[in-house]
Amino acid sequence: MIFPIHDLLSREKCQAWLEEHFHPDGMECVHCQASLDKARPFRQTRESQLTVYRCQQCQGIYNLYSGTVFEQAHFSPEQLVLLLRGIFQGVPTTRLAEELNLSYKTALKWRHRVQAQAETYLQNVPLPDDVVEVDEMFQTAGEKR
User: Fold this and answer.
1) Which of 10, 34, 97, 145 is placed for a possible disulfide with 29 were both Cys, Cβ 3.0 to 4.6 Å?
2) Three-state secondary-structure class, residue 82
3) 18 in a domain, yes or no?
């Protein structure tokens, strides 16, 4: 996946990029699948400053992250784009946590969730090449010396 970082330096551009990739057919109500034009802005989330919409058909509320693995997450759009970029580029979790001002535990939790979600969609797809690169391995782990 390509992350044109020079194009993703503003909140609006990050939100547009996330909407394009999270909701390719357009954002809709997660409860009744009504389109966004049948909803009204309801409020802003406190931490991530996302617009929450209220569906005028079913009165359900939803935002940009609803119906995705990031539902209930408190990331700003910029933070989420950079988190995804780091995960997909293989940036170590420690460095990712430091750069995004997250705890290591939080960064690792979201890395695992993204990888698990990807695994469900790519479960039966073979790898395109014969060579596989792995991360570090500690061969002396567990030895008593």
Assistant:
1) 34
2) helix
3) yes
Which residue's structure tokens are 């690169």?
133
Asked whether residue 27 is assigned to any structural domain, the reply reads yes
Q: Give 145's pLDDT tier (boundaries 50, 70, 90).
A: low
Inter-residue contact 29 to 60 (CB < 8 Å)? yes
Asked if the structure places residue 142 within a domain, the reply is no
d(CA 63, CA 45): 9
Name the domain count of the chain.
Answer: 1
Residue 35 is part of which domain span? 8-121
DSSP lists the bridge partners of residue 53 as 41, 62
CA angle at 30 for the pair 26 and 34, rounded to the nearest 5°: 60
The residue type of 43 is R
Strands (E), the chain: 39-44, 51-55, 61-62
- Please state the φ and ψ torsions of residue 20, each to the nearest 5 degrees: -60, -40
Tell me the β-bridge partners of 52. 43
Q: Is residue 50 part of a domain?
A: yes
Per residue in 103-130, pLDDT (tens digit) is 999 999 999 999 998 888 777 777 778 8
